[in-house]
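Our consortium's second objective concerns turning raw sequence data into structural hypotheses that experimental partners can test. To show how far this objective has progressed, the report includes one record in full. It was chosen at random from the queue rather than selected for favorable results. The single chain below, 130 residues long, was entered without modification.
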Amino acid sequence: MQYQAAAAEAGTWGYVTAARRATMEEVERLAAESAVVIFSVSTCCMCHAVKRLFWGMGVSAAVVELDEDPRAEEIDRALARLLGSRPAGGTPVPVVFIGGKLVGAMDRVMAAHINGTLVPLLKEAGALWL
C-alpha cells in the first residue's frame, strides 16, 4: 500500500516530497490506532449510516471528523491517493480502515456487510468478540 501511494505521488523526477510522505504516514498511523477507524464528515448522511452500522454491531470505532480537524485538507488528499480518486473530485467519505487496512468508502463497507465478509474482518481485527 505504501509503495502504491508513493508511486502515485511520484512526480516527473520520481520522488515523493517529505510533506506528502508525512501526511500518508499520519493517515496510516491514525488507521492503525484502533481496530476500526472511520474518516468522516459530521454532516454527511452516509458517514452517519456507516457509524450506525458499526455501533449497531457493537463495534466501538474511532472516528476522525475531517470537518473538525485542522489537518483535514492534507488528510483528505492522502485518503484520495489511497483510494485512487482525484483530489479535485474530493474524497468520498466515509473512508473505513479495519485492522489498519483500508476497506474503502461506503460502497465497499456495505458490500462486505451484505456478502458476509465484514464480520470476519472485524473479528480478525479484534473489534468483535462474538
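The partners drew two points from this record. Strands lie at 36-40, 62-65, 95-98, 101-104. The CA atoms of residues 80 and 86 lie 6 Å apart. Both points have been shared with the crystallography group to help prioritize constructs.
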